[in-house]
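Ticket opened by: R.M.
Priority: normal
Category: complex prediction / small molecule

The reporter submitted a protein together with farnesyl diphosphate and asked that the result be attached to this ticket for the collaborator who will pick it up next week. Submitted input follows.
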Amino acid sequence: MRRAVTSDIPALSTASEYFFKLGAEGKRVRPTVLMLMASAMTNGVMTSAAQGGWRETDHAPAHQAPADVRRRQQRLAEIAEMIHVASLLHDDVLDNAATRRGLRALNLEVGNKLAILAGDFLLARASVTLASLRNTEVIELLSRVLEHLVAGEVMQMTAKPESLSSMDHYVKKTYYKTASLIANSSKAIALLGGHGEESAQLAYDYGKNLGLAFQFQDDVLDFIGSESLLGKPTLGDLKEGIATAPVLFAVQEFPELSDLVERRFKHSGDVQRAHELVKSSQGIARTQELAREHCDLAIAAIDRLPASESKYAMHCRRALKELAKRAVERSK
Ligand code: FPP
Ligand code: MG
Ligand code: MG
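Result attached by the on-call engineer:
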């Protein structure tokens, strides 16, 4: 991946390599989930001598699928991470962000223009790698993700007052901004692994529900999280004028909150008042419940994958389920 993001134009490579450098690469949750999904879908002993043949052990055979399949799945995981970082570079310009991953945001380091172009460059590199997979369905899935990221961002930016307090609008935006990338990439991993439509749909369901669960827990933590653990100030969503799930549930108990939502908490004292109403409502508990429901759906998708004789695949399935639980139980 580091090779894929370099350029012979010095200013461009400085900018595009910024979040791929050691210590700046973040948790890489997406590639981790995707490679676990690739392994979780394998089915025991490969017999074809042409593919090298292999014997399974309990522990991580890097060669559990034919090497070319595994390599293509790894390319896909890298593409997902490049798209993710590109969207963050653009997001930080839009949000005028000062920090990202504990570092100065790239827009502060190199300015908005170069930060945007670095994001474009990463998308271009991701596109070249995507095309090299020679799979038009996979290209279509990942292109759709780009459309969703942009649509979600614009939905958030331009929502009419009445949409701002709509849970449907919020969940759709959340799917576009957060869940679509991991959902469609998981499906692409399945297709590259040669799995059929039914299994690919289960991979998609896992990714979608993991993404939604993760984001709903993020919404909760923005209210009840610890600033020092999260590494960012709490109530950030309210301060940015965004009503997330806890607020939208609270509106159902305190209809007067919808005025504040519709003016994006812009009047003085709005953020404080909204915070208080959310705290005295069931908003946080109901959002946690919603996150838990999506966590359960993610786990159910893994449990419905076709039986596998591979111990290692079963190991990876347990890891994917554990990851879904952690997404909703985490405090940072
Ligand atoms: C983080 O949101 C932002 C996203 C998940 C997607 C942003 C998408 C765009 C800017 C559209 C451009 C897309 C591409 C593919 C270049 P946030 O601001 O809510 O979260 P944060 O706390 O991480 O900043
Ligand atoms: Mg942002
Ligand atoms: Mg943003």
